[in-house]
Amino acid sequence: MTGNLKLLINFVWKFLGTVRFENDHVAAILGFSDPQWGNILITRVYFIEGLGHNLFSVGQFCDSDLEVTFRRNACFVRNLEGVDLLLRNRTKNLYTINLHDMASASLICLMARASSTKSWLWHQHLSHLNFDTINDLAKHDLVSCLPKFKYHKEHLCPSCEQGKSKSASHPP
Looking at the record's lineage, which domain of life comes first (predicted)? Predict the structure, then answer.
């Protein structure tokens, strides 16, 4: 949730309900967007007029296949491999994340999955290399200009399928 409409690109105006604050004040959710800071993408950030801070729900992290763990004084956000993406301390009963510091450090990406087109394009550029190997190359930054995305395939590449087919043996 955010109170700053300038942060939201491709904003969709739509009444989505209301939120109630601790002081029983009720505010309307007037729409949503998917803001991006550098390589950081957060999906469905709601715009609430008059809200002074940007708020993210635990559900937004979980929807991105991330694990969120709360301890007494800290919050951890981890990916499926168990790598810590965020570690934030609690101050005044609130866990704060400074996205501008994260974007300038350029070390953290909350959600990065390559589009189908980009996945197949890199598969062809890398001589039809399998997707697990492409993901390893991207993860360890072993190929220059290969974006750090999660590459996936929906179907078998026709060229790879033909290369793996076995011909029937010829009679002697």
Answer: Eukaryota
| 27: Cα separation from own chain's centroid | 28
Residue written as token pair 């301890």: 71
| CB of 109 closer than 8 Å to CB of 39 | yes
Do the bridges between strand 40-41 and strand 36-37 make them parallel or antiparallel, or are there none, so unpaired?
antiparallel
Q: Is the pTM of the predicted complex or chain greater than 0.70?
A: no
CA torsion sign for 51, 52, 58, 64 is positive
Please write the tens of the pLDDT for every residue from 31-53: 878 776 555 566 777 777 777 66
**CA 21/CA 50 separation, integer angstroms:** 12
Query: What span, in angstroms and rounded, lies between the C-alpha atoms of 60 and 57?
Result: 5
Structure tokens at 119: 């996945």
Going by C-alpha positions, the residue among 77, 83, 72, 45 that lies closest to residue 61 is 77
